[in-house]
Inverse folding.
């Protein structure tokens, strides 16, 4: 007999109690259902709670509730498509799932590993965890409860706020990519002495890089999330609450507003201003300013609607040629 898949909830708990903790509404006949684990729809069996947050998984969810008697955490936009009886409906189902997973996640090991290097002159706050092989140089400041994962490097003049996570292998505060050309075309590095300020509750992914500013700091605002391999150039400002997917890059002196969403492998040219709450599609090449609330795609990045029309015309022309 196969072992049940998913993450165990210990002790098991009723759907009603989960809704009390995380919000949402449970079907009357499902309030007493006991959840033993959280599992994906593909492998959930009786006793499991499975999330349904995408329309593409609707048919699978209906089959699972009928055959395996799983309970469902259902996004409110999909609730009308799912029969009552085994539903926990939530307007922010993914948010509720994140809370559930946080409850069952293993606690991080705190403290400083013996192989970590923290220079004399670095300031490390209370409850900071520094992983194996990490380097924190003199002149860096790390706030309370932050986590520096293995092999990350924190340079001088870096100020890290409270509850910040610096991913494995990330490099924070290395001198930025600044060069000047002389009268005989010789090249001279421009010293980048402004450092980096990372505000509270930021998470920076593995192998990401944030370069030091020239005269003032490069700034990563409160609550920013940078995925793996993201690069932030010198003098850039990434506004609070912005989320950036993997392999995106910001050239020097870019200013990104608050609450911006940026897809993977997007590139933003130097000195561009990106307005609050705007959205940039994956692989977009941004070479001009984006207004507040703008949605752009393509290269050069234009409004998403214009880009889609252009792609449609191009594909239509190809079909006519054939």
């Amino acid at each position: 007999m196969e072992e049940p898949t998913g993450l165990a909830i210990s002790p098991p708990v009723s759907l009603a109690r989960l809704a009390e903790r995380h919000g949402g509404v449970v079907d009357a006949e499902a309030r007493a259902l006991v959840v033993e684990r959280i599992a994906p729809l593909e492998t959930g069996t009786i006793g499991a709670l499975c999330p349904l947050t995408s329309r593409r998984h609707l048919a699978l969810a209906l089959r699972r509730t009928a055959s395996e008697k799983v309970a469902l955490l259902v996004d409110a936009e999909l609730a009308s498509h799912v029969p009552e009886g085994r539903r926990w409906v939530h307007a922010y189902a993914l948010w509720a799932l994140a809370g559930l997973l946080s409850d069952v996640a293993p606690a991080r090991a705190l403290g400083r590993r013996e192989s970590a290097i923290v220079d004399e002159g670095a300031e490390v706050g209370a409850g900071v965890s520094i992983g194996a092989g990490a380097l924190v140089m003199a002149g860096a400041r790390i706030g309370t409860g932050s986590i520096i994962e293995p092999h990350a490097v924190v340079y001088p003049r870096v100020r890290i706020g409270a509850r910040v996570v610096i991913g494995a292998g990330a490099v924070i505060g290395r001198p930025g990519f600044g060069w000047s050309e002389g009268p005989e075309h010789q090249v001279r590095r421009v010293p980048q002495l402004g450092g980096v300020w990372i505000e509270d509750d930021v998470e920076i992914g593995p192998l990401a890089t944030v370069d030091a500013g020239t005269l003032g700091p490069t700034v990563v605002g409160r609550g920013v999330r940078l995925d793996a391999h993201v690069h932030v150039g010198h003098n850039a400002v990434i506004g609070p609450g912005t989320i950036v997917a993997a392999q995106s890059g910001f050239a020097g002196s870019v200013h990104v507003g608050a609450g911006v969403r940026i897809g993977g492998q997007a590139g933003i040219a130097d000195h561009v201003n990106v307005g609050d709450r705007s959205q940039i599609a994956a692989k977009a090449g941004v070479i001009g300013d984006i207004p507040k609330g703008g949605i752009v795609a393509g290269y050069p990045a234009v409004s998403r609607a214009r880009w889609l029309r252009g792609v449609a015309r191009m594909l239509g022309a190809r079909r006519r040629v054939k």
About this structure: The domain at 170-305 is CATH 2.160.10.10 (UDP N-Acetylglucosamine Acyltransferase; domain 1). The chain has two domains: 7-104, 170-305. DSSP finds four helices and 35 strands in the chain. The chain has a mean pLDDT of 93.
